[in-house]
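On to our target:
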Amino acid sequence: AIIKTALPNMDREAKEEYFVVIQAKDMGGHMGGLSGTTTVTITLSDVNDNPPKFAQSLYHFSVMEDVALGEPIGRVKANDLDIGENAKSSYDIIEGDGMDVFEITTDAQTQDGVIRVRKPLDFETKKSYTLKVEAANIHIDPRFLSGGPFKDTATVKIVVEDADEPPVFSSPTYLLEVHENAALNSVLGQVTAHDPDVSSSPIRFSIDRHTDLERQFNINAEDGKITLATPLDRETSTWHNITIVATETRNHSQVSRVPVAIKVLDVNDNAPEFASEHEAFLCENGKPGQVIQIVSAVDKDDPKNGHYFLYSLLPEMVNNPNFTIKKNEDNTLSILAKHSGFSRQKQEVYLLPIVISDSGTPPMSSTGTLTIRVCGCSSDGTVQSCNAEAYVLPIGLSMGALIAILACIILLLVIVVLFVTLRRHKNEPLIIKDDEDVRENIIRYDDEGGGEEDTEAFDIATLQNPDGINGFLPRKDIKPDLQFMPRQGLAPVPNGVDVDEFINVRLHEADNDPTAPPYDSIQIYGYEGKGSAAGSLSSLESSTSDSDQNFDYLSEWGPRFKRLGELYSVGESDKET
């Protein structure tokens, strides 16, 4: 079956879809035949037969004058009844006084025309703009060109609103020049700035001290005049770069900055001087008029026409019979000898003061002294020796050799003196003075016995006569002032003697002995006697006592007393068994 249109100029924008019911019959459509039906959906495809149309003919936008470049300020929309590619349009600014200030682009997603700022706006210069915007289809069907142009236009008015702007300097940078000898508080230059707003707020100026750490400059806050605060020195710093800050008095947040370069100009305030400390060498066999040395000068100043130095001798040295000077074309100076026959024996060193002057205004000068040393030279003029001692020393023996020999002799003398001193100290007798002998004699007896009846663990004879049974033993480490006969030692006594009585006797003898040393003597006796009301203090028999004391609490005192608790617990367990 073939379906054909029954109406001409069908319009998709009016109706996009049609539903057609088709019936099919057999038997040629005669009576008794069978039939069936179906529905056919017919969709009209779009063609670009409709131009874009702006929703309104006039658009109004407002924008602040400090808007950033490229920032969108408004959108316009041209509607197209077509769909897809046929509905795409492009936007252009075709007329207006802001064609170079604004631009319009197409948003691919929404097909809007986006107006953006291309150049900075200034409310004080121009407060409004009028633009004519055109929207045109991108894809045009030639079959429908007779239907008219596929484009549309609209007028856009943009109003610029005033914004509080920072101050504006009259120049983006400033260059000032000042001589290094300028007086303090003298004016170096001036910067100017103004508030571009209609309100025109007053401006205050200041120096960013981060750029002037030494505070060499000041600025008048009202008129922007820069003055000198400390002396300048071109030889120390030729350029100074500072930053000037301009601030609105009504709104301190509105701040502008500008760089200021200050160049220090040179004045002639430094005298020339020798480039280095020169020392010239003059051969004894030199000839008259021979150039001894060529010297040069330097000057810290920097004159515009370069340096030109003048050299001269001091007035009292002009007629000296030995040397003269000659100025060279390259601004250097040659020192010449007036005669020959110089001798080191007669005079080894000559000092030649030279006056160096510059050509500045006013001229500066200084005096430098050139040291000229007379030396022995070979026939070809090579310096060999500049010391006068070569004439007074024997052949083959130099001053260095003499110094080395003298040093060896002094070293030998020092060694001999040290040796004699050590031998003398070694032969002196060792004498110990009584008032310096502060030693202590401590005799310890660490044996602990079971009492008087315990004769195996302790020797009672030691208590009876600690000095020995042979009598008095004289001390060998002191020298007694008085000589006494040695006292008779006590004869050995039986073990049954009363120790208390023995100790008292020995104490009496020690107190009355004039030969006893003047220091303390401590003797410890580990004897434990009987008959004490307190009983025995020995722990040796504690295991056999009838004590009922319980030592279980030792195990509660911590790990340090664990071993002690185990020992006593073992003793108690053995006692119970």
About this structure: Residues 388-396, 430-438, 482-487, 540-546 have pLDDT under 50 and may be disordered. DSSP finds four helices and 31 strands in the chain. The first strand starts at residue 17 and ends at 25.
